[in-house]
Amino acid sequence: MNQNLIDMEWDVDRVQQFDAALNALEASMAGVVALTIDQRRELTKMGDKSEAFCRQAVDAFRENPGVLPRNFDLDGFVRDMLAFDVLRPRAIRLERMLQKVQDTQMALGSDLMTNALDGYAVLKVAGKGEGLEKMRDMLGARFNRRGRRDDEAAEEVPAGA
């Protein structure tokens, strides 16, 4: 193998441990929501400047609860800010872990693809006459130059034309 960015093995115990950790994490996430694409698009977003505004609002509202309408849930507003503060560092950790998982998958995929290409190149040259034609053809199908548009155009041509 010419490329080996990563070499890892997942034994049964390690996979079970990983899955148990994911199950525990999912179980601990009660109350976490999943938004639809439309909801994400339509929601008012809170950036850095908006966060400072919201923090100032918490202080101002706590100091002057009498100016708020009776139906304003000040306790709920404060709970949301506290929950936001609890969730942020955990979200950062999760993002880092997810990035590492994605990078690992990318490295494994790159190792696989690079080495498959190297092996295929050798097979094309050294495998001639050794009864490996079907294997070469099967692997070579990945590089079929006929694209999707060609397939669609062929389907549109009436039979006998």
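Second entry:
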Amino acid sequence: MSLPERLAAASEVRSWTGSIPLHYEYTAGVAGEAFLRGLKDGKILAGYCPECGSAALPARTYCVDCFSPTTRFVRTGPIGVVRAVAKKETAGGETVSFGFIEFPGTKGGIIHRLLPGARAGSKVRAVFKPRAQRAGAVSDIVGFERAG
């Protein structure tokens, strides 16, 4: 086959009709589901290890210290401490602050929006949406306000 013939053959559009059925379903997993159900109930839950007594946030299925299965989830907080802050200016010129919040007795923490008055080193508490508006998502927390 000559070069022009090969080029002509290569430029032919080939197609087929039909469909490829694809269905994806992602779950939060056992620990993630417990955490999200807790948010719907207005609680922040950490994974608890019965072997060594360690609690971790985000909740995990295995202990970060001894690698034993995490079989319980415990309420953490309600008061946490802002350990780091990042600020972002929105297109409308508003400055939004986000913080990394640690809770006493819990390893790790949560990153979320800080409400006015909360800053690095502040003690804060979660402000949840009204119960009827919660969906079991991180957005169930409006933000963290400075605790009195």
